[in-house]
Amino acid sequence: PLPVLAVVGRPNVGKSTLVNRILGRREAVVEDVPGVTRDRVFYQASWSGRDFTLVDTGGWERNVSGLDLRVAEQAEVAVELADAVVFVVDATVGATATDEAVVRLLRRSGRPVVLAANKVDDARGEADAAALWSLGLGEPIPVSALHGRGTGDMLDAAIAVL
Ligand code: GDP
Ligand code: MG
Fold it and tell me: Which family, according to the similarity comment (predicted)?
């Protein structure tokens, strides 16, 4: 079986956009509205000659009071079946309490994590990405899933730990 790379993070941070960028086609469903219910979706992907299974996550309910818990649960299931994780944070928003909750479960999982600081569409966003060192997951890799900026570096880091 191929190694599994799971993409986790809050709704609307750009996980599905990043998955499409990695696949090189628009297959994952991109939503402008956060919280749309989706199950985990599996894709076959490759980078630098390495084949792997890529998991896009979603599936939480639009339940404001329970949102943190639902996101954490969803991420937990995906992380359990993953060999490595890409944790996507919206660098333009910064680390939220939900992000911190996901970080705790990622730590407990023991899985290697690559921190993707998304929505860094140009050089001005680099400082936003650097602020995510505060999550304690190591170097935030600035990416723009939308434009492809930095995604190659992010994939290099991911397959190095996969
Ligand atoms: P998901 O809920 O985490 O899967 O997020 P989506 O991939 O559905 O994206 C949510 C919204 O963020 C969409 O409107 C995307 O176009 C937008 N988005 C995703 N990546 C980027 C990015 O790198 N830059 C910008 N500016 N917007 C992005
Ligand atoms: Mg999505």
Answer: Belongs to the TRAFAC class TrmE-Era-EngA-EngB-Septin-like GTPase superfamily. EngA (Der) GTPase family.
Ligand 1 centroid to residue 22 C-alpha, Å: 14
Strand partners, 5: 54, 84
Q: How far is the CA of 15 from the centre of ligand 2 (A)?
A: 5
Cα(12) to centroid of ligand 1, in Å? 6
Longest pairwise C-alpha distance within the chain: 43
* 107 marked among binding-site residues: no
SS3 at position 100: helix
DSSP β-ladder status, 50-56 and 4-8: parallel
Closest Cα to atom 24 of ligand 1:
119
Q: Is 48 annotated as a binding residue?
A: no
Please indicate if the annotation marks 143 as binding a ligand.
Answer: no
If the chain, 162 residues long, is cut into consecutive pieces of 10 residues, what is the mean pLDDT of each piece? Answer: 93 92 86 58 94 81 53 76 96 92 90 98 97 97 98 98 97
Q: For residues 79 and 109, what is the distance between their CA atoms, to the nearest angstrom? A: 7
